[in-house]
Amino acid sequence: MCCCCICNCQEKEVKHLSCCGCFPIKCGLISIGIFYIFVTLALFVEVFYCLLNEYIHWWYVPVAILLLVPLIIGSVFFIRFFTLDQTSTRTKLIAAMILGIVSFSLLAIWNLCYFQWLYKYDIVYAGADVVGYTMQTKKSFMVWSLFIAICLDFTWAYFLCIATAYSSAWDGEQEDDTFAMPKIPEIPVPGNPMGDDAPAAEEES
Questions:
Q1: Domain ranges, residue 86
Q2: Between the CA of residue 184 and those of 181, 187, what are the distances in Å?
Q3: Residue 12 resides in a domain
Q4: Which residues face 134 on adjacent strands?
Q5: Is residue 89 domain-resident?
Q6: How many domains does the chain have?
Q7: Which of 51, 159, 158, 63 is nearest to 103 (CA)?
């Protein structure tokens, strides 16, 4: 069975759309979802692995994991999209991309703050006693950390455009009525039981 048969890439609503200029957009979204989940697992393992680093405070890890919660929630949204492609799950993909950008940015800010003001050593030691440590200066580590975060943010911003285009192609432009004022029901005026049609009826008579 071909890829397009599995992904339904040839549906007329999205046939004119593409990802990265050459892939069908549905195929691209599935690849983006797999990459999204992979990055989430990789960051979680990397952060959790810092518990074995004797040079880093233990409380660095809980804070970093807390900042990864939006990214984990976004992965859950993608898993739901994999199980069922419908309006609610397609809309959640847009939120998943925004949550990913939030997590990357917050984690980069936390790394900058921790290693600049809370880390006790002039050299950043990465690794563990069992496998050994690699050394970087604080400046080098923070520059690379910020550079990677910016690259991920821009990549996820492009993914956000793909998810928005796919959702709009299927469901049209969704109006955000979260902050819309509730509609006030019309109240009939006392003494006019026939409503607005009463004056017109009197004129005809």
A1: 18-173
A2: 9, 9
A3: no
A4: 126
A5: yes
A6: 1
A7: 63
